Amino acid sequence: MIRKRAKRQSAVPAVTTLVVLRLYIADSAPNSARAIANLAAICKEHLGDQFELEIIDVLEYPQRALADGIIVTPSLTKISPSPLARIVGNLSDTNSVLHALGIA
Amino acid sequence: MRVTKPAATPPARAKVATGIPGFDELSYGGLKLNRTSLLMGGPGSGKTVFALQTLVNAARERNEPGIFVAFEETTRQLIADAAGFDWRLAPLAKSKLFFFEAHLSPEVVQSGEFDLRGMLAMLKAKKEEIGARWIVFDGIDVLLTLLQSPISEMREIYRIRDWLADDPMNAIVTAKVEGSMSAAVNYDFMQFMMDCVIRLSRRVEQGVSLHRLQITKYRGSDFVAGEHPVSFGQSGMEIGAPEPPEIKHAAPTERVSAGFERLDRMLGGGLFRGSSTLITGVPGTSKTTLAGKFAEAACLRGERTLFVSFDEGADPIVRNLSSVGIELEPHLKSGTLRMYSGRTESIGAEDHLVKLKSLIREHRPRCMVIDPISALAKAGGLSLARAVANRLVYMVKDEGVTILITAISEGDDPQTEATELQISTVADTWIHLSYIVRSGERNRALTIIKSRGTWHSNQVRELLLSNAGPMLADVYTAGGEVLMGTLRWEKEQEGKTKTTLRQVEFDQKRVDLELAEADTHARITALQLSLERQRVELAQLSSDNRETLVSSSQREQELGRIRSADPEPRASPPPPARGNGANGSAKAKASGPRSAR
């Protein structure tokens, strides 16, 4: 499990609520690698440091993924703020990701 | 050197039974062990039922856990849908079956491409956890359409195949096809990849929905080709496997009652055990009554009986038969009799066949009634019904069941029936019932048209119904026509009167003759008496005559002596004609003195 937590930098003013995200990937599969990269770019641009991201490798933690109701990889879940949102795919379509996360 | 070839049956381990009745026969043992089979078909063709039923059977009968990956439906939906079958899926889902909900809800947003690596990793984990031997990917087409590109579709299909190859399980993949296969790009490719391809279809023919199953490919194995009827019953899906081409029916000589004694006598002692009997007739000719009587007789012998009626409920039949003294109720209660009422239009003729097959398996009857088989013609066309009717008779005979079938004929001429379902050729005994309308009456006539291998009456009988059951009465023929009902009664009365008259006449004549005989006897006696008397008289007369002769000669001698006549002998003896007459003696007497003068 890879845990990434952006260091809080009080200087970034854009978003004030903390966004909690979970990304389920399958090792270094092309789609998974692309998803990590795409998400990192989106977060950096739109969330600043106001996010918490947990990356779960399904190959490593399949039972966790089963319990979380994951179907395919890569898969992104927004835990908070509610409502819960789910996005599948390599997150190449930035607009739909932002829309689903309720950012844009 | 000669090498004897072993039988061409594959080793038992190479296949794994699905437990779906009929399918394991068609595929000579089931699905290929540890290989993947593809089920294709339109919506509602039974793909999910096939897959789920196989899983349930494996879990329940062989204790083999399984995983069901549902791309189309939620677990809750699946369990609710399966509640119509007696699978008890809910408790099974807690222990031996794992449902993986792979249904992407509409709220899920798709952004870019995804793949199944993660899913397969999860399934592998689950497989190891529960020790699964089976896996079903149900509705893979739903997933594939989300992949958006034919290349990624193919890639994911390969991924599944490789995953299965690495860690073999018995796998079933189902895919929906709309109409022809051309709608989907990769189905050809998918078929190529799979070891066994099964097509399920559903079509509507004359308003009847017909389900079919066809095995189109089975790598390394033979299978029964062609489309086979599929029906859905309490235990799920059932495939109508074709009957073996060779007819192997035993021919018992044991007789069973056709229902009542008089009919048995007409049939030369009853029906042969395991034979088939056809009763034809226009509506209202008591076909059901005869069938009911046959069933009742079987039940009374303690034989398990199956009464199949089409388009008429079991309860009305029992009630109606009760009015003619046929009581089926107690046998229904005891379980000896099983009644099944089918609605012909609801399912196809072949589905009815499959249904009857499972009924026979469940009830194990020794006698069976189908009333009327002609109703099958409504279930998806005549040609189909014909084939089904024939197969039905053969199937029942295979089981050694004595069957009685009724068929409605359009006309009173039994030949018309022969053109309708053409069942008469396979029936061993054929009884035809008809109405004979004369003098404002309809009367029922019973004729035995044929009865294989047994003597039978050639005469028409009148069938009478009373609250004591059906009866047969002799009929009269007059001027080439049979007389029934009132006419028969009249004829009977007329006959009776004639008989009485004849009897009286006879008695009269006899008395007369006796009198005459007595009279003759009396006369004979009288004549005999008179004869006796005459004889006595005659005897008396001749003795008198002799005495007279003696005395006259003595007197002559005396006279001669007294009158001193010549001692010379008499010159002329009396003529012979008068020698013994009284006159002759008198003359002699008279001449004597004259000549002496």
Describe the overall structure.
The complex is a heterodimer of chains A (104) and B (597). With 104 residues, chain A is of the alpha+beta class. Chain A has helices at residues 30-46, 62-67, 94-101; strands at 2-5, 19-25, 51-57, 75-80, 85-88. Chain A contains three helices and five strands. Chain B has 597 residues and is α/β, with parallel strands linked by helices. Chain B has two domains: 12-239, Rossmann fold, CATH 3.40.50; 255-489, 3-Layer(aba) Sandwich (Rossmann fold), CATH 3.40.50.300. In chain B, a hairpin with a 2-residue loop joins strand 20 (429-438) and strand 21. In chain B, helix 13 packs parallel to helix 14 and helix 16 (485-563) runs parallel beside helix 17 (582-596). The longest helix of chain B has 79 residues, at 485-563. Chain B is rod-shaped, with a radius of gyration of 51 Å. Chains A and B meet through helix 1, helix 2, strand 5 and helix 3 of A and strand 6 and helix 5 of B.
Low-pLDDT ranges of chain A: 7-13
Helix content of chain A: 25-40%
Query: For the residues shown, what is the average pLDDT of chain A?
Result: 83
CATH architecture of chain A: 3-Layer(aba) Sandwich
Overall radius of gyration of chain A: 13 Å
- Largest chain interface and its two residue counts? A-B, 37 and 25 residues
- Report the CATH C-level class of chain A: Alpha Beta
CATH superfamily of chain A: Glutaredoxin
| Overall 3D form of chain A | globular
As laid out across the biggest beta sheet of chain B, the strand order is: 5-4-7-8-3-9-10-11-12
CATH superfamily of the largest domain in chain B: P-loop containing nucleotide triphosphate hydrolases
Q: Count every helix of chain B, treating DSSP H or I runs of 4 or more residues as helices.
A: 17
CATH class of the largest domain in chain B: Alpha Beta
Number of domains of chain A: 1
**What is the number of independent domains of chain B?**
2
- Looking at the structure, the CATH topology of the largest domain in chain B is Rossmann fold
CATH topology term of chain A: Glutaredoxin
Unreliable spans of chain B are: 1-12, 577-597
Mean pLDDT of chain B: 81
